[in-house]
Batch of 2 targets.
Target 1
Amino acid sequence: MIERTLAIIKPDAVERRLTGTIIARIEAEGFQIRAMKRVHLSKAQAEGFYAVHRERPFFASLTAFMSSGPAIVVVLESADAIRKWRALMGATDPAKADPGTLRKEFAQSIERNATHGSDAPDTAAYEIGYFFSGTELI
Ligand code: GDP
């Protein structure tokens, strides 16, 4: 089934000038890029995006990190896009990520882990809508 998912190149990776490298991997894996932009989230916007994690002990630190600098938000489309993008990213904790995954290669810690990906169709729809209007998805 053709799906869409939201990918984020997080502030750690943008700051380290990894945007082009990660976009090249996305295209090489066969995803279509349906929308893309650079954003600098406010703390409140980061808190809204990660609202499901608000009770977690790392919520304040995570939202401070995600609002610390520019990020790139991207809508990816392919067959099985949600699972496929999470496989390319690898495990949340780079120490547990498989060789060849983006997080194994580029993450600096469990928090500063280079990329984000939606985890299910309902969260993908919410997250895409958080950043893009319908007319921006082309
Ligand atoms: P994901 O779906 O793989 O991004 O993982 P989660 O939804 O569980 O967590 C969201 C984000 O919170 C992760 O990508 C990390 O940036 C951060 N995070 C997750 N677990 C931890 C943790 O134990 N400590 C810290 N500091 N950050 C975490």
Target 2
Amino acid sequence: MSNANPQCLFCKILAGDIPADIVYESDSAIAFRDINPQAPTHVLIIPRKHIATINDIGVDDQELIGSLYSAAREIAATDGHADNGYRVVMNCNAAAGQTVFHIHLHLLGGRALDWPPG
Ligand code: 5GP
Ligand code: ZN
């Protein structure tokens, strides 16, 4: 999409300027494996549109955000986690540990996950 941020790591991955292990692509989103995986499956699902944080999601973005969850469901099924279970989480800002300011769902699966998270 046309609002790419030249400073943004994930916009650079979207543009193909930084390589990534892409596992899913649609008109609205892509997904790729996390460079520092915290579970056997650790995939990041991002919208093609640059949105910095959850706080910046607009009312017109609801279908787009829904498409991220549809991607999560498909990838979890492909990786064999649909029945055992998996986690989908999005961090917002510093206290939650957000480090890349282009929204992304973390899809974690393939091991037992503690609750509550740290
Ligand atoms: P956050 O902490 O913002 O919720 O998650 C950012 C995630 O991006 C982290 O899990 C981190 O390992 C991942 N990450 C950071 N840089 C890269 C990269 O260059 N490539 C990939 N595939 N993942 C990255
Ligand atoms: Zn971006």
